[in-house]
Amino acid sequence: MTDPAHKPTFGDTVTIETVGSDSAVQRSSHAVARALLRPALELLARIAARHPTARTHGFRAANFIELAAYPLRPSRGTRRRIVMFEQFRAEWLWHKDLPDPDQAAQGAILYFHGGAFILGGLHSHRRMAARLARASGIPVLVVDYRQLPLAHITDSITDAVDSYRYLLDRGYAPGKIVFAGDSAGGGLAFSAALAARDEGLPVPGGIAAISPWADLDCSAKRAHPNEAHDAMLSGFILSVPGELGMARGNGLDPAWSAVNHDFHGMPAIFIQVGSLEVLRVDVDLLARRCAEAHVPCTVQVWKHAIHDFQLGADLLPDARAAVGDMAHFIYRITDPDNLKAGTP
Prior knowledge:
This protein is α/β, with parallel strands linked by helices. Helix content is about 40%, strand content about 15%.
């Protein structure tokens, strides 16, 4: 994706859609974020890049930003239940009109939150996950996986696969489980599915990702035209937790990034990304892996949408529409009639 208007040609299994209203609200939110949020993130990234001690302290401080999201509450009618694992925790979210998650026949969404592997958690993504649960009619298990600086991405992947094993052990059919996530969590959804496959587990029924960060190596992102236009992120910003935070010994292991894997055997995939996001580079690579493996993949490119705009569904009409589209994909995967017909 070399420019916002370009649609690369992939195989027959990959569909690229340009969607969204390109409204004044979308453009305004992009302009405000570009003027205020990105400069602040760039400054913090430069400080962290130059001072290793500040970087470590910064990662720790970022972990606590999650507490600021504590006052956020899911929509009325949302039910919640905490699940404790040995190394992490997770939270079930479902609407009161839906069956209890213990009724595994309905399927489940396994959600991995974003936050560059240094921030975010159950509080920050509770409203988003609850909205997705209600829109899809499927309960959501949000995974509060381990993050930097106390854990590595390999630990995050282990937690993600363990949460999947939990669902399988409780009787959930793999074909009725959809991995979902945003940003770092979107990339983690792919890594978890690949790890599950490589460990001999059945793959989930589908993967739904919002602006997935699926390549820790940020060199291609720094060279992309969207580096100058993204309202929130840049290749440089992502390189701090990615290349500096994750590196071991000689640097990054390519195996830690989902884009460097063979996608044969992966399930149907649905991806959303903003037209000016630097993470379109990662989305392009994921689409190519799908094309090479003949995996069905739909990519929605939303006009002038900022990174993770879906989290603003309370305010942005396009965000509500995007969540609805994702919910529709998930419903088609998990609906019993579609499963019987073999048409996810």
